[in-house]
Structure formats: structure tokens, C-alpha cells
Write a structure and sequence with these properties.
single chain; Jelly Rolls; 1 helix
């Protein structure tokens, strides 16, 4: 009787090993997928400090920016001339974007026209911060009457 029971249990052993549920493959996450967005856009013509986008990484991590767009927007109510209205940065290896704008007050005769000029967009290779664990800031030009300077940056952190 023992031999029959032992033979029966030994016969079931391989079946139990193969009766496990089928493994499920996990979908991998892109390592360069953005985990955050910094978007600043103040009212046109408002008097305030420069628009500033600050991205603070965890300790030991770099900031990688894979989308960056900056703009110069106007309200179309006055003649505006701005040459070298620069966006600057810290901890981004001296990144600078220069914008210039020129308009006439007659733009208001075309309501609904996009009065913003943007630079940048999706980057083929991310901008990497110069030092790990240190915040990256992107600062718009000084406040100008009838204008605003939006900033949009998507980023992720990695060593």
C-alpha cells in the first residue's frame, strides 16, 4: 500500500510543477519618459517678476529636459519692439534662448490671430543638467508692457 501511495505521489509531482499559471510579461516603461511638466504663462501686459520655471531633482539625480518651448506673446494693443529678449537658465550648461518681437497696434484689427511666437519643442536628445541634485531654473525676460513670456518644459530624473 505504501509503495502504491508513494508511486502515486511521485507521479503527481511533475504535473504539479507544470501546473503553474502562465507568466505574464510586464510592459516596460521608456526610460526617457517625462515624469513632470513645468508650465508658466502669466497674463499679457501684467507687471510682475520674470516668469521662472524651477525643476528640483532628488539627491544624486540629474534633470533631463526632453521638451522645451519658450515664447513671446503680445496683446496687440500697442506697437512693440523687443530685440534680444533672452530666456536664461541655471544648471543647464549656459542654455540661452533669444527672442525678438516687432508689431504694430493695427494687429487688433485681426482678432483671434495668434500673437505668440514660440521657439523650441520636442528635443531629439534631452538637455542634461550640469550637476546632479541641483535645481534647474529657466527664467524668462524682464516684464514688458503688453507682453508675456511663457515657458513649457517636460522632464525626467535619472543618475
Amino acid at each position: 500500500m505504501r509503495k502504491i501511495l508513494l508511486a502515486f505521489l511521485l507521479a503527481l509531482l511533475p504535473a504539479a510543477a507544470f501546473a503553474q499559471s502562465a507568466p505574464v510579461q510586464q510592459q516596460s516603461q521608456r526610460l526617457d519618459a517625462s515624469v513632470g511638466t513645468c508650465a508658466i504663462a502669466t497674463a499679457v501686459g501684467a507687471t510682475q517678476a520674470n516668469d521662472t520655471c524651477t525643476i528640483t531633482p532628488p539627491a544624486g539625480q540629474y534633470v533631463y529636459i526632453n521638451y522645451l518651448s519658450v515664447g513671446a506673446c503680445q496683446d496687440g494693443t500697442a506697437s512693440i519692439s523687443g530685440i534680444q529678449l533672452n530666456f536664461t537658465s541655471t544648471n543647464l550648461s549656459g542654455w540661452v534662448a533669444e527672442t525678438s518681437t516687432l508689431s504694430a497696434a493695427t494687429i487688433t484689427t485681426n482678432p483671434g490671430v495668434n500673437l505668440c511666437a514660440y521657439q523650441g519643442g520636442a528635443l531629439t536628445a534631452p538637455l542634461k543638467s550640469a550637476a546632479p541634485g541641483v535645481a534647474v531654473t529657466i527664467v524668462g525676460p524682464a516684464s514688458t508692457p503688453h507682453m508675456s513670456f511663457p515657458i513649457i518644459a517636460s522632464y525626467y530624473f535619472s543618475p
